[in-house]
Recover the amino acids of this structure.
């Protein structure tokens, strides 16, 4: 069984390149796989490996400047959810494209998972899902507003166009692990919205702590690893991934006439050219050959 740790923390890193090398070396030494993003605003990512290996990496991260109060969410996976380790340097650890947004300065009011149901049931509260459209499609909270964004960077424009809908409402926002809400709540507060709340620890913490019989969550939660989705108790969900468009599919979607493993699904078949599909077929062929050799192709997760 593999331990999976999803983490993020906003802090000031003066030299992210100096952080990258030792962190990557430790992860490789301890057999950890996954992706960690480093930017001057902090760290974000998901890693997997042995219990002792994960503990070693978390200890290392907590020793970084400003990271002593790091929080993370844990789950398990029966098979390796990642095939390699990456520590990447980025301009933002979650891309919103708003240079004035600063979660270190202030964020909205945190709401624990145990208190979330009461908040979102209040008649003066509007609940907004800050995730991308393909994530929302497989699960969200009852009554939540879907901005139908394809990337988080579209959220500010969506808010500007739709803010009139939420006059005299308290705003409650949520995302997978909490990181997007750190920025979206700061953004709304910068726009003059003061009654802003967000789910502490995100959907993952809610699914971990709130019993299914008491839940207001409907569906599965998309995760960015080989498990594709998780449900209550963070049990692995039924979804698979289209390796052409990276959108989640249910197993029965394989029976759709448009589905071709690694090449297209019913959601993306009309979005790519014949040349694209030819490249995808060659990539799929190489992935199959790599699997037969007992290795992992670079196109894998």
């Amino acid at each position: 069984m593999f331990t999976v740790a999803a983490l993020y923390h906003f802090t000031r890193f003066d030299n992210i390149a100096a952080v990258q090398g030792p962190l990557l070396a430790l992860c490789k030494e301890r057999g950890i796989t996954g992706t960690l993003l480093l930017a001057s605003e902090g760290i974000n990512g998901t890693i997997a490996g042995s219990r002792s290996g994960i503990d070693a990496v978390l200890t290392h991260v907590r020793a970084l400047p400003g990271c002593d109060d790091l929080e993370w969410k844990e789950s398990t996976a029966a098979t390796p959810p990642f095939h390699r380790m990456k520590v990447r340097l980025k301009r933002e650890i979650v891309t919103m494209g708003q240079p004035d947004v600063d979660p270190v300065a202030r964020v909205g009011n945190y709401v624990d998972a145990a208190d979330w149901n009461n908040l979102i049931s209040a008649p003066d509260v509007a609940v907004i899902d800050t995730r991308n459209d393909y994530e929302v499609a497989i699960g969200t909270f009852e009554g939540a507003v879907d901005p139908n964004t394809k990337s988080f960077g579209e959220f500010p424009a969506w808010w500007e166009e739709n803010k009139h809908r939420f006059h005299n409402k308290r705003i409650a926002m949520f995302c997978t692990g909490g990181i997007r809400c750190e920025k979206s709540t700061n953004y709304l507060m910068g726009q003059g919205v003061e009654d802003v709340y967000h789910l502490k620890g995100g959907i993952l913490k809610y699914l971990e702590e709130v019993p299914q019989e008491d839940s207001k969550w409907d569906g599965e939660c998309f995760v960015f690893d080989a498990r594709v989705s998780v449900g209550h108790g963070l049990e692995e969900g039924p979804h698979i991934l289209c390796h052409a468009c990276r959108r989640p599919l249910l197993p029965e979607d394989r029976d759709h006439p448009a589905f071709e493993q690694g090449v297209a699904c019913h959601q993306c078949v009309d979005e790519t050219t014949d040349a694209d599909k030819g490249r995808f077929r060659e990539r799929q062929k190489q992935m199959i050959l790599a699997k037969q050799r007992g290795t992992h192709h670079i196109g894998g997760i």
In short: The CA atoms of residues 191 and 200 lie 22 Å apart. Residues 274-293 form the longest helix (20 residues). The chain has a mean pLDDT of 94. The chain has three domains: 2-89, 109-219, 248-293.
